[in-house]
Amino acid sequence: MRTVGFRQMKDGTEAEYLFLSRLERDYIGRLPDRILHALRAMDDGLSGYRVTRLAHSLQTATRAEADGADEEMIVAALVHDLGDSLAPENHSNYAAEIIRPYVRAEVTWVVEHHGVFQKVYYAHFLGEDPELRAAFRDHPHYESCVRFCERWDQAAFDPDYPTQPLEHFEPLVRRIFSRRAFDPAVVGRTT
Questions:
Q1: How confident is the model at residue 190 (pLDDT cuts 50, 70, 90)?
Q2: CA-based radius of gyration for the chain
């Protein structure tokens, strides 16, 4: 079989769905390649900064690694802005959904909320509330997100910072995004 015969899902057969399931497993297995491709594509994008979005992401991950962050948080630092091109108004949520099946809840929460937490640095210049993050002050991952933003993300716009290339992080990307999705031993961990 090269393609299924059905035109509506309700008309599919067991054989067709088993066939599609095999293809889907192969496709999912290539997720790390697509993540790396998407990161490379960030080298061309939003202008005005002194570094490209890819350089910013690499620098954020390099800073996280130098600061002793664990693998999940380093990968989060690397992919935290993947949503910039397709979801510029909610890029944090987009990136969080990409990483959610493969990391602990704290990491997903940090990525999901980093956009709101970053407003503390600039929102007042735009007539917006810079303290939107205060609504999350009692959340168990609040300080983790503050640390992510202060030490890694907001500081990662320096063209002179010695930044690791994408190839340095490739094995880590492959390891994290090759995990079994929603593995309770991973997503249920607290640290």
A1: confident
A2: 19
CATH superfamily, region 14-179: Hypothetical protein af1432 (1.10.3210.10)
d(CA 55, CA 160): 11
Q: CA-to-CA distance for 157 and 150, rounded, in angstroms?
A: 12
- Do 159 and 55 contact (CB within 8 A), yes or no? yes
pLDDT tens digit sequence for 114-136: 999 999 999 999 999 999 999 99
Q: Taking the chain, what is the end-to-end CA distance rounded to the nearest angstrom?
A: 45
Which two structure tokens, joined as six digits, stand for 104?
């602990």
Q: Which residue has the tokens 């990491």?
A: 107
**What one-letter code names the amino acid at 107?**
V
Residue 190 tokens read as 């607290």
